[in-house]
Amino acid sequence: MIRLPYLRGMAAKQLSDVDHTISEQIRAIFGSHEFMTRLPTTGLQSDQIVAHLDEYAHIGHIDWRRGRASGTVYCDANSELTELMTRVYSQTAYTNPLHPDVFPGVNKMEAEIVRMVCNLFSGDADSCGTLTCGGTESIILAVKAARDYGRHHRGITRAEVVAPVTAHAAFQKATQLLGIRVKMIDVHKDTYKVNLKAMRSAITSNTVLLVGSACNYPHGIIDDIQDIAKLGLKYSIPVHVDCCLGGFLVPFMRSAGYPIPAVDFSVPGVTSISADTHKYGYAPKGSSVIMYSNKKYRRHQFSVQTDWPGGIYATPTLAGSRCGANIANCWATLLHFGFDGYVESTKKIMKTQQYLKAEMAKVDGIQIIGDPLMSVIAVRSDRFNIFRLSDKMSEMGWSLNPLQFPSAVHICLTLMHAQTGVADAFLSDFKTVVNECLKTPTETGEGLGVVYGMAQTLPDRSLVTDIASHYIDGIYTTWSQTIRQKQAKVWALSMTLPDRSLVTDIASHYIDGIYTTWSQTNDK
């Protein structure tokens, strides 16, 4: 329908408006800074490079060092840990675990990381895993292992994954990449935990994996993992617990005085767990651990090419070569904190979460979504457009995360928010912004809040894909002042054109330009 000329014109007009908003937001991020687009003829001196680095490090208005960012940075970047990471990196920068004969120490570190983390998640001697570059890769590999296990042991050729709608988007990315159907299951409107009856109804003979979160990214809610695992046992289906966000809080919650239901390998039926060491494990980006209850699952994660002329090529993860320094830094971080250090960090974060959750619940016009037991607090409002809250908090120097279905925003608390005075400063600004929003409840706001609000109303989700793709394109654009000025004129012109196909031509010319390798002649 959207391809019909009349509707296509209407859609083009709306997308043009949205694209303009997104482009303005992206350009605002980089301000007036110019981009380097060509290699220098002569290499720069170290001091010159560091001077550029210092400049780049201060682009942006969110002061994450003072706890103004939701999630993002999970520990003090100016701590003793950073000095340790620098020393470790200097010794391992050029190592590669793809060559265990050359760098056996790096492979030893990875094996030790996996064993330590499996032990934290109540794994027995049969439990195993690998280190990955992040939560998304851990999830992709867990889905890949489940698909291939189902094919090998049960003859499933049309694999399906059953997951809550609140499960991380990486599960949908995994199913896209692996050609698997995913069934997204609604959550209960009061608890925001996955609807177990609906999950049970979605199971078929093609189901290769059931998914639960502990906790989920949008609302910080822990699904009923034990009940999901019972379904897995009943129907002989592997069960994955996504602890990517809360992975290095989960094992320490009880010792910190904030017990949660069991979500690890102590639960019969749980066959795989993903946990990010680069979040609350405080290792640098990017590292995560994918764990399995038994090697019979992990072997289906591996990729082996037996007939390649270059030799037998076997890799445990998606990447071939990997940066050994990431492994070494993760290993060093675990040793630096130790069990007691992680317990103390968990105490600080959960004390802050309990305080903020109680105080935010008292704010008129705001509802907390579900009962978050860990580090995330999500709020919504039936009195005003919640995305105005996100936009205005951004103007005050806070970075919150907008959510959809339902419209909401959340804050992901880290050690940065446990610093003295940060929680109170956040509450003060939060209350001020909420009161301002309540005074003008019909206003829709501006900026990316408008984009999120509009995106939820589009029945054709491919249009949302177009919007998001334009945002990513913008991040990779090397803006120049001349381009900015000319684009402003182009946007203004495009708004006046009744024939929207002309706007399509203009936009297409813009994309062509992105892919053009400009010469000095072309520039003129």
Automatic annotation (TrEMBL):
This is sphinganine-1-phosphate aldolase. PANTHER family: PTHR42735, SPHINGOSINE-1-PHOSPHATE LYASE 1 (PTHR42735:SF6). The keyword Endoplasmic reticulum applies. It is an enzyme of class 4 (lyase). InterPro entries: GrpII_AminoAcid_Decarb, PyrdxlP-dep_de-COase, PyrdxlP-dep_Trfase, PyrdxlP-dep_Trfase_major, PyrdxlP-dep_Trfase_small. Gene3D superfamilies: 6.10.140.2150, Aspartate Aminotransferase, domain 1, Type I PLP-dependent aspartate aminotransferase-like (Major domain). Belongs to the group II decarboxylase family. Sphingosine-1-phosphate lyase subfamily. Pathway: Sphingolipid metabolism; Lipid metabolism; sphingolipid metabolism. The modification N6-(pyridoxal phosphate)lysine is found at residue 279. Its EC number is 4.1.2.27. Keywords: Endoplasmic reticulum, Lipid metabolism, Lyase, Membrane, Pyridoxal phosphate, Sphingolipid metabolism, Transmembrane, Transmembrane helix. It holds the Pfam family Pyridoxal_deC. It is a single-pass membrane protein. GO terms for molecular function: pyridoxal phosphate binding; sphinganine-1-phosphate aldolase activity. GO terms for biological process: carboxylic acid metabolic process; sphingolipid catabolic process. GO terms for cellular component: endoplasmic reticulum membrane. The lineage of its organism: Eukaryota, Metazoa, Ecdysozoa, Arthropoda, Chelicerata. The keyword Transmembrane applies. It comes from Oppiella nova. Its cofactor is pyridoxal 5'-phosphate. It is found in: Endoplasmic reticulum membrane.
